[in-house]
Amino acid sequence: MYLYDSYDQAMVDARVEEFRDQAQRRLEGRITEEQFRPLRLMNGLYLQLHAYMLRVAIPYGTLNSRQMHMLADIADKYDRGYGHFTTRQNIQYNWIKLEETADLLADLASVEMHAIQTSGNCIRNISSDHFAGAAADELIDPRPYAELLRQWSSFHPEFSFLPRKFKIAVIASDTDRAAMRLHDIGIQIVKNDDGELGAVFYVGGGMGRTPMIAPLIREFVPLDQLVTYSEACLRVYNRYGRRDNKYKARIKILVHELGKEEYTRQVEEEFQNLLDQGVEPPLAELERLRPYFADPEFTDGPKSVDRSDPEFALWAARNTHRHKHDSYVSAVISLKPVAGIPGDASSEQMHLMADLAKEYSFDEMRVMHTQNIVLPHVKIADLHALWTRLEAAGLGAPNLDTIEDIIACPGLDYCSLANARSIPLAQRLSQRFAEKGRTEELGELKLKISGCINACGHHHAGHIGILGVDKKGTENYQLLLGGSEAEDTSMGKITGRGFDEDGVIDAVEKVTDIYLDKREDGERFLDTYRRIGMDPFKEALYD
Amino acid sequence: MKILTGNDLKTGEVIWWDGTGWSRHVDDAVDVGERGDVILAREDAERRVNSGYSIEASKDDSGVRPAHIKDRVRALGPTSVLT
For residue A500, what are the domain limits? Predict the structure, then answer.
């Protein structure tokens, strides 16, 4: 993985001291909250319902054990012993003190981490495939390109005050594990008929109050023009994106209002202008980055493992992913124990995951946007030993991509924007289905919960989605069906009138009953929904 | 009744106006009537509260109950925490 050079370290260290001074001036009353707010947000520090919240960037979700140990230490030293892994492959701390934040940031900087650009109207953390560099089905490792874009977008003076926040995802396989087309820019690295590598650009996707699937803007951008083309996309947005209305300021609205053709025409014109201006980093920079993402020294070993223990067999079947080396797999540590809080991990669990990464996965981990942790390179021969350690620590839930693997935003338990709670709903739903023993029978079923229309819980993209709304001061929940954030991207549709908390849990169960009754061989929930449509589900819910 | 709440500037903790200062306990909150804006302006200027605001609440034998669920969650803390 990428390691800071002296320039990176100097920039991050300087930013810590700058923030220390800003926070001190705020505490001494030399600047007002109105003046301080944009400064703290540039460093990822929000004021939430109960306390300050700090969002720490984990570039494309990749981190090593030294960093994970530090995240655990920070949870103990500055928070309440736990952290929350987010749907943007980051981590958030919920109980931060302003007077301690600069010290916290200094501790982060000591392990090459920061919270810069995790808030504000700038280019946020670049996200990617959590199996990047390991997956059997990828064309190349997309992370060197994600890193190039991270460096380009960090402190980019032209793009520090965009009309609204901006999110970029980079993948390099036909299977989309990063919700690529639900980003402001989605980039897929492909190979053309001549065998050359390039990038497909999708621009103008997103969830939130106006969900849109990003349209295809360009089928092939040579990889040595990747940054230039990204700059052109951003420059048109920065020039014409709406700054008069926060709710219409995302690039998806611009692309929609201009039309894909006109937006593309303007991007192409800008791109031609930029090509001569030396925007693209020299090839030597990419070559400098590439060795950081070189394969570890894989060694041959057994290609299969004894699965006579049924509990281990279930976990191995559910929570591992095919690796490009046939003696290895990528193993997913579920942060979704039955009745647990999706994405939360205690400091003890973080320390354990760090130790296991060191021991079994070449010192590397990934944060998934589904709020789980990946050990990307686990030798098949070590799989049972790994599972035994996880199981003993309560981290062995065999539920990847099942109805128990629920995405949930912090919701009204923590977030000042939320209208309803997400966490208790997720806990009750996973408990309901686990107790009924129906999880395996239901197969792949992605359930996603957001506590408000901002959609941090990706409810639009859930096979089953739940959106919390405010109904005259009480929590109410809308149910959506048919969404997907994978390569078959689709937006869920609302079933009808909303439910209270008990009602929506029963409603999810009714929906799964219809699926089990109507499904044909091999169909996932989403396949059945797409075949039979909304009506049978509505009849069961409302008649 | 109208009560005042906000966050402690240094720690971010949820605080409630008790008539003479800021308390961590919602049950200490007092009715400020129409004086909320004046109190908040003074307390903000003295950096004793951050992002303060006025809310509707009711009081009975069990204590002070903010009208909106968001403020009830602020008063009581998250309804579920990692154990």
Answer: 407-542
Structural domain boundaries in chain B: 2-76
* Predicted pLDDT of residue A310: 97
- Taking the C-alpha atoms of residue A359 and residue A67, their distance in angstroms, rounded to an integer, is 15
Domain total of chain A? 4
Q: Which residues, in sequence order, are CB contacts of A443 under 8 Å at separation 6+?
A: A402, A524, A525
* Residue A19: inside a domain: yes
Q: Which regions of A121-205 does DSSP assign to beta strands (E)?
A: 127-128, 168-171, 185-191, 197-203
Share of chain A above pLDDT 70, in %: 100
Asked whether residue A138 falls in the same domain as residue A58, the answer is: no
Instruction: Work out the minimum CA distance from A497 to partner chain B, whole angstroms.
Output: 21
CB contact under 8 A, B10 and A51: no
CB A430 within 8 A of CB A422: no
In a domain, A488, yes or no: yes
Q: Averaged over B16-34, what is the pLDDT?
A: 98
* CB contacts, 8 Å: B77 with chain A: 50
Residues in chain A with pLDDT values less than 70? none
Whether residues A429 and A521 share a domain: the answer is: yes
The pLDDT tens digits for A504-527 are 999 999 999 999 999 999 999 999
Can you give the CATH number for the domain in which A356 is found? 3.30.70.3340
Q: What pLDDT score does A543 carry?
A: 81
Q: Which two tokens stand for residue B78?
A: 């998250």
